Amino acid sequence: MHGLGNSYIYVDGFRDPLPNEERLPNLASEVANPYTGIGSDGLILILPSNVADVRMRVFNSDGSEAKNCGNGLRCVSKYAYEHQYVEHENFSIETLGGIVESQVHLDEEGKVSEVTVDMGVPRLKRKDVPMRGKGGALEENAIGVTETINGIDYTFTAVSMGNPHAVFFVDKLADAMIETVGPLIEKADLFPDGTNVEFISTLNASEIDFAVWERGSGITQACGTGACAAVVAAVLNGETKKDEAITVHLPGGDLTIHWSSKDDHVWMKGTAVTVCTGIYFQA
Ligand SMILES: N[C@@H](CCC[C@H](N)C(=O)O)C(=O)O
């Protein structure tokens, strides 16, 4: 399935036996490989949960496990609803980053066309991203901070949406040097768990251009948590406002994100698409 071209191989753990825990990271890398596997940005498990209606586990294409995935949440929602693992159009999903609430929107045939997810409250303190800082800085936000990495000064805003994001404002995405700056920031010592790296350009009060270097997967067509982090960063830097529905233009298509002033939650709405189903045989 994919959300705006951010594609994962989804395994139905309600129905099928799963490989051993220690096998999962390698399996993710294997299936993600476009030459020797299937080709994807990683592997997602759809599982029963003891604390929510469904549980999602996300593995990046390098085998690392992530705490959250916005595009994955929409696809898991579509799958769980269409396979009747949930009874209602509103239900909860457990992730390593916490429990989120999801709502599916149906087309005339009763298929899920779009999904809205309450992505929760963004965490901004350095210690919650997590991002290193001297002295008391761990308790502070990193909004428009300048940090020196490999002798070069970079200015960005750090946001956790359950997973870490460093958001850079650029005049034009074409000038962003994603392939060099992305991996450098992803693996900088400043981020003890690594980070996803977003490059954004504000077009007007309700539209943002967006590109991403994902931790553990590299350049992808879209990142749902990254789009949420981008809107939070845009609001915090005075480029857009809370409560405004922002259209984020990602390489794979658009997401609608709004950050509510009522409860501080970030909401994401977008599509989820099933490409094909199949059986993966291991040699
Ligand atoms: N594509 C995702 C995020 C996947 C995990 C990320 N690469 C990480 O390591 O945190 C999304 O849509 O949010």
Structure description:
It contains four helices and 18 strands. The protein has two domains: 118 residues, Diaminopimelate Epimerase, Chain A, domain 1 (Roll); 137 residues, Diaminopimelate Epimerase, Chain A, domain 1 (Roll), CATH 3.10.310. By secondary structure, it is an alpha+beta fold. The strands form two sheets. The protein has a 16-stranded mixed β-sheet that branches. It has a two-stranded antiparallel ribbon with strand order 1-2. Ligand LBFN2T5F binds next to strand 5, helix 2 and helix 4.
Specify the structural class. alpha+beta
Spatial separation of the terminal alpha carbons: 24 Å
In the CATH hierarchy, the architecture of the largest domain is Roll
Radius of gyration over all CA atoms, rounded: 18 Å
Keywords:
amino-acid biosynthesis, 16-stranded mixed sheet, single chain, 4 helices, Diaminopimelate Epimerase, Chain A, domain 1, alpha+beta, binds the ligand N[C@@H](CCC[C@H](N)C(=O)O)C(=O)O, DAP_epimerase_DapF, 283 residues, 18 strands, DAP_epimerase_AS
